[in-house]
Amino acid sequence: MEAKQTRYAELAYIRRVVKKVSAQDMADLLGVNKETYLRSERGGRDITLEEAVKIAHKFNMNLAEVFPKFFVENVAI
Predict the structure, then answer these.
(1) What is the pLDDT of residues 34-76, one digit of tens each?
(2) Are 12 and 20 in contact (CB under 8 A)?
């Protein structure tokens, strides 16, 4: 099973490097404090679907681009 700390690695990368958005801006967007948001990025708190949609919208990206680990392709059933 995947470690929680890597679950949102792409989100952290996109926020910091690609979009250059501060953690405080993200926290404000989601209506949480900065520490709560950063805990989410580190995997200590799950991001809700509503929050994920807001994040993707802010980045002008689709959910699968921001959260690729939740959209696994070619999984054997």
Answers:
(1) 999 999 999 999 999 999 999 999 999 999 999 988 877 555 4
(2) no
Query: Contact, 63 vs 71, CB < 8 A?
Result: yes
Question: In whole angstroms, how large is the CA radius of gyration of the chain?
Answer: 12
| Alpha carbon distances (Å) from 25 to 15, 22, 55, 77 | 10, 5, 11, 40
The pTM (predicted TM-score) of the whole model is: 0.84
Per 3-state DSSP, what percentage of the chain is helix, strand, and coil (rounded to 5)? Answer: 60, 0, 40
CA angle 66, 25, 49 (to 5 degrees): 40
